[in-house]
Amino acid sequence: MVQYVVEWLPRINRIAIVVEGWERVQIESVEGTFLSILGDDGQREDISLPVEVEENVNLPYEFEKGRNDLEYIVKIRSKSSEKYDNLIMSLPDGKWTKEDLCLDPEFSIECLQCKQKIINKDNCRVLNNMPSEFWMELMDYWHCHKPDVGETKFGSYSQYETLKPSENEILIGNSFFQGTPATLKNAVLEKDSNMLLCKNCSVVLGQTTAGPLYKLYKWKLRLRRNGMTYHFPPELDVMLSLISVVKANSCRYALLKSGGKRLLVWIFSFDLGVTLTGNKQLKRSMKLLYTDNDATTNHCIERQNAEELDIQETTFHAFYDGLQRVNALLPSNMKVVGEWSISYVSLVE
Ligand SMILES: [Zn+2]
Ligand SMILES: [Zn+2]
């Protein structure tokens, strides 16, 4: 059994390939995005690279012995890629944004479990993207620490007020939709003054928030658009929050908290192309280091600024399981660094 990981760093045009499990590794051929390697016993593995190798592979590339037994490493130059100028800011802010939904006026947001229509043209006349949660926090901050000057100079916070949607208006967050109770009255039911259930099948779709507003989680829904069905993986909720953290304050550490559990995540690098054992390809992925070790976590958050994120249990577990699944595919030397485990998450399908 051979395990491998291919990491493409677009900024420096380098593809690094680490292979583990054979006594010896040789390159049989490398061309375009195709790499074929041979083991000592005639084993062969065809690997799809995340990007094409440089056009004329003149130098003979050779695998070199790594730090572990049975570990081999080679670094190959990739074709240069010019679309990676504006790295952080070009990462997606969300999925099922206003721009996505406006592509088809007949779009329909449905209950994932029973397919009942929840948001469509019958109850939605206006769509608006919400500013990121971090922008909202900032506004809250200014609200509480209002500068002691006349209203004239700072306006009347009208932008803040308009975050309350009108009837038949849906506000779109990174991973949720928000509307007034009147807008959503035919689709959802309130339970225990806080939970929102699908009116048809009673599955939990979201929660009531201040306003009161109805907040529906995208991962409990599906999108029908132009005859296609789209899903929102729960772990995307966490990934989009991590991107916001990096974009908003270039903070590289996030402390995820969920139901008494803590997971410290170090956003090590982003916008990598990755191929994992079994030719599983991840595009525009983030390389994450993570730990749930209390001592490591405490040691780190005492010294580093870590953004604290409260995460729902469903999305927390989906995210954590995803990290562990990818970690299991990595060669042993690539799985851990010190007290941290290593993983990759992809931002696009
Ligand atoms: Zn339902
Ligand atoms: Zn530390």
UniProtKB/TrEMBL annotation:
It comes from the Eukaryota. GO terms for molecular function: cyclin binding; ubiquitin conjugating enzyme binding; ubiquitin protein ligase activity. It holds the Pfam family HECT_2. One of its GO terms (cellular component) is nucleus. One of its GO terms (biological process) is protein polyubiquitination. This is Ubiquitin-conjugating enzyme E2C-binding protein. It comes from Saccharomyces pastorianus.
